[in-house]
Amino acid sequence: MSTGFNGFGAAYFDGDRPIGKEVSLHIANNNLQIGFDNGTTLFWPLEDIRTLEDNADKQSFTLRLITDPLARLLVTDQMLLGYLPNATRRSPPKGRGKLALWAAGAVAAVALQVTVLVPLLADRLAVFIPPDGERALGEATFEQIRDALGDTGLAPLAICENPAGTKALAQITAALNAGDGAPEGLSVAVLDHDMINAFALPGGFVVIFKGLIDHAETPDEVAVVLAHEIGHVVSRDPTRHALRSAGSIGILGLLFGDFAGGAAVLFLTERLISATYSQQAETNADAFGYARLEAANVSPAALGTMFERLRDEHGEGNELLGHFLSHPSLSDRIENARSAADETRNYAPILDDAGWKALQSICD
Amino acid sequence: MSDVSLTSPTTDPAGLLVYFVGTRFALFWLALKTGFLTVITLGFYRFWMKTRMRRWFWSAIRPGGHPMEYVGDPWEKLLGFFIAVVILTFYIGIINLLVMFVSFSIFSSASVGYLASVVGVIPLWFYAQYRARRYVLARTRWRGVRFGLEKGAWGYAWRALVHWAVTLLTVGLLWPRMTFWLEKYVTDRTYFGSARLNQGGHWAMLYRAAIPFILSLLVLVGGAIWVFWLDPIVVSADMTTDDIIRSVEEMMDGGAAALPVVGVERLGIFLIGILGLLYGAIHYRFVSKRLMANHKTADGITLHSRLSGPRVASIYVLGSVIAYFFLVLGVVGLVIFAMLTLGPSAMLGGAMGDFGAAVDLPKSIAVLLIAVFYLSIFLLWNVLYSTFVTFPLMRHIAQTLSLPQRHGLQVISQRARDEFAEAEGFAEALDLGAAI
């Protein structure tokens, strides 16, 4: 039995020449018989015929044979579709192994770069940046942070510059930043923000948030944090960190596209503030800080007191705790601070009452 | 299609016409469907979306009544994206780091580094552009025969850089030269089966396409001379820019101008000039394509385009306005939908803090809802833009194109497949594959 179809408007393309051939169309013995003017006939098994998907035209459709990637048959008779059992079945997928390989490769490449390559390179290069360059890097990131935390992006976050407070701050800084290996050009700034945090930037910038001063009960508690940050400055940890971030900006932008690029920059700013250094860097900064405190005759135990209070009030989710205590455990750190204090020694507060009052009102 | 010569392409005296079939609604539906899937898969379906949209558009364009065919595979696009990410992370990450290092070490500033980092991506951008074109052509067929583009992406990239440099140095005077030579570079490497295309003509012919732009520029410059110099609006002799801005602001508020002014309505000339510039830019972009299409040939094949600059401009303007109108309707609809599903108290609660909110959403869910809302608007805009701008534009371009001479088709045969592992991955990764 043979069923005939309207061949008007139908055309066969052999997959070699861009010349359409007129055809007659019949179905017999589960084959589509494509007859040509010269008397030859092609047989397409019905179950091997597929239609091309997402066709824009309702009046015509294109058929292909799964065993021939090139030949095409343009058909206008809608009746024919009803005879094709697998017209819309998908071809079996191929090359998925390769895809999985590259997908894994992409994830591994990004991970390798963000966690190993960029840090390694940044650490090596950080040593070679001249002081001027480091200073510029610090200024740039400082401004970036002020802008990001500023009032809805209109004005950058204010620097607190009350003269008496500034004087008190300078007094602490001078007391801590003395002796051998003291970094030159250290600048300590207080930013008018409620965050209980402090951080160091490249080029000797140390930033303390007003929130930290508000939270501290004694000037010593500010001093211990400052001493720790100076420790980071001395070992150039922030420079490494900033270089790493610069290297990562491009990668993150690539992955998230333009529209999330702004978010990536914000994310990096956040990372700069809550910079988590390696355990070794933290331990070194602590050791450096304790030595400076000893030299200034201030008890390192203040660090333990402050952390303990923070933990009780805010839990371990606090920014400062997150920043300071990410690697060595919190209780170890408190313990270390306590044991760094010499019990037989007669420590004095770093500021007198008047100086402490002045520092507390530095943002007024 | 009864008047179309379907099978013997050499007998139609008017040449082989290009038809466009398919309805706007069908496209809208396809775009909406695939766009929705893209949103709920967090963007991963976009490779499928792009493939399906192209398949639809290609099958709608029918030179001589026979559809074009797009055989690109979404999986190969996904693979290409991964390949590009692997290569680009190393390039961009490491290069960025080195550039920033040099910038701080030598120039003591970040801006040099940022600039270098952006400039460094530009050659890659051109490279990706050519690769994307090559991929699309390699996956395009007509009458079962493949198109193709020869290798040469780096050649394209450095030529593009030089042309841009020349164009910038001549303040845009040699822009047509750049348009022409870059298009010629690509066209001369384009094949249909065994036939190689050739871009004829001369770059100076493209100045014709720039006439509306040049005229608008002249109107602006002439207007400026007239209004500020020959017959100044402000009568006072010692005026400053601040005074002018203040006067304009006061007039906008409905008050009297602070300065004595004459014939303020003449400032309208700038509005005309700027609108003219916009029109001129669209006109140049498309009419230059038309002029060059008319000089594209292969052995025994010629192209002819009757594309109309004003028509294309009106498609852009009307299409964008309609798309924008429906976008606003859609956003209002989404808000009403959210009100109905979450309850008005949730909306009010959101607006006034969680003061007495009936629906106490966890923060993560609220953020997710906002993200979905944002993505939906983004999706809606894409769908509407495809429907009201891309669709009529493609239709106009197709329907105004024809092949007056095509006996050369008789001697064309198939070309080998271009495997092209990374598809348009670079273009995708560098975010320049937005256009169809």
TrEMBL record, chain A:
GO biological process: proteolysis involved in protein catabolic process
Entry GO MF terms: metal ion binding; metalloendopeptidase activity
Transmembrane segments: 99-122, 246-268
The UniProt record lists the keyword Membrane: yes
Entry-linked InterPro entries: Mito/Outer_Membr_Metalloprot, Peptidase_M48
Any one of the GO CC terms: membrane
Domain Peptidase M48 per the UniProt entry, residue ranges: 177-339
Cofactor(s) essential for the protein: Zn(2+)
Keyword Cytoplasm: no
Keywords attached to this entry: Hydrolase, Membrane, Metal-binding, Metalloprotease, Protease, Transmembrane, Transmembrane helix, Zinc
Cofactor binding summary note: Binds 1 zinc ion per subunit.
Cross-referenced Pfam families: Peptidase_M48 (PF01435)
Similarity annotation: Belongs to the peptidase M48 family.
Protein name: Peptidase family M48
Organism: Sulfitobacter marinus
UniProtKB/TrEMBL annotation, chain B:
Signal sequence extent: none
Transmembrane segments: 26-48, 78-106, 112-130, 206-229, 267-287, 315-344, 364-385
Keyword Oxidoreductase carried by entry: no
Keyword Transmembrane listed: yes
One matching Pfam family: DUF898
Coiled-coil boundaries: none
Domain of life: Bacteria
Keywords: Membrane, Transmembrane, Transmembrane helix
InterPro entries, A to Z: DUF898
The protein, known as: Uncharacterized membrane protein YjgN, DUF898 family
Source species taxonomy: Bacteria, Pseudomonadati, Pseudomonadota, Alphaproteobacteria, Rhodobacterales
